[in-house]
Amino acid sequence: MLRIGGVSSMLAVTRLSLA
Hints:
19 residues; 1 helix
């Protein structure tokens, strides 16, 4: 669960950075 949350957070941050 923690791993999935971490990955989701990283993906969200990357999306914001790209956007």
